[in-house]
Specification:
Elements: E1 3-7, E2 14-18, H1 25-31, E3 50-53, H2 55-58, H3 66-72, E4 82-84, E5 97-100
The structure holds FE2/S2 (inorganic) cluster (FES).
């Protein structure tokens, strides 16, 4: 199964987890208690699922839809490799995908 690596903004925290093909980065984050909000649950009506994709993987992703671009414009800490986590769907090719969470001061891994 492909893997995904979530990093905190300061790169101090790193969590590698299984990423089933067909699930979005947001869905995978939620299954593993990664602190990625996703307030609208993937309906492109918020920007709280904003992640920064590692440049190595950014070009492998399909182009964002216009709705995604519009929402990203509202995201805090936008970068040129920013995407919405609910719109990144895992594939075999994305094995090892690295995404960074935007908020430097937030603890991204909440152990429950
Ligand atoms: S969860 Fe709202 S746009 Fe991704």
């Amino acid at each position: 199964m492909p893997k995904i690596i979530f990093m905190s903004a300061d790169s101090k925290e790193r969590k590698e987890i299984d990423a089933p093909v067909g699930l979005s980065v947001l869905e995978i984050a939620h299954k593993h208690d990664i602190d990625l909000e996703g307030a609208c649950e993937g309906s492109l009506a918020c920007s709280t699922c904003h992640v920064m994709v590692d440049p190595e993987f950014f070009d492998m992703l399909p182009e964002p839809k216009e709705e995604e671009e519009d929402m990203l414009d509202l995201a805090w800490g936008l970068t040129h490799t920013s995407r919405l986590g609910c719109q990144i769907i895992m594939t075999e090719e994305l094995d090892g995908l690295i995404v960074r969470l935007p908020a430097a001061t937030r603890n991204m891994m909440v152990d429950k």
